[in-house]
Amino acid sequence: MSLNEAPAEVQLAVDLIELLELNQVAPDLALKALAMVTADYERKLGVTQGEG
């Protein structure tokens, strides 16, 4: 399967990894930032589903 045929979330993950690597973001910093992004999007998902 090519990347173009992969699910949208896989394509986005690859794009994000490439962005972080091209900008030489340290792995520990990337994980901390991604945790913040995850929390934000989980909050937005809760609001969208009427939980917030």
Keywords:
mainly alpha
Question: What report would you give on this structure?
Answer:
The chain is built from 2 helices and no strands. It is mainly alpha-helical and 52 residues long. The chain has a domain at 25-52. The protein is flat and about 35 Å long. The relative contact order is 0.08. InterPro entries: DUF2496_YbaM-rel (IPR019630). Pfam families: DUF2496. It comes from Oceanisphaera ostreae.
Shape: flat
Report the biggest beta sheet as strand number plus sense, adding barrel if it closes.
none
Structural class by secondary-structure content: mainly alpha
Q: Calculate the terminal CA-CA distance, rounded to whole Å.
A: 39 Å
Portion of residues in helices?
over 70%
What percentage of amino acids are in beta strands? under 5%
Question: What is the count of DSSP helices, taking H or I runs of 4+ residues?
Answer: 2
Mean pLDDT: 92
Poorly predicted tracts of residues: none
- Number of E-type strands: 0
What is the chain-wise order of helices and strands? Answer: HH
Rg, please?
14 Å
A few lines on this structure:
InterPro entries: DUF2496_YbaM-rel (IPR019630). 71% of the residues lie in helices and 0% in strands.
Helix-strand layout with pairing:
Layout (H helix, E strand, L loop, with lengths): L7 H15 L4 H22 L4
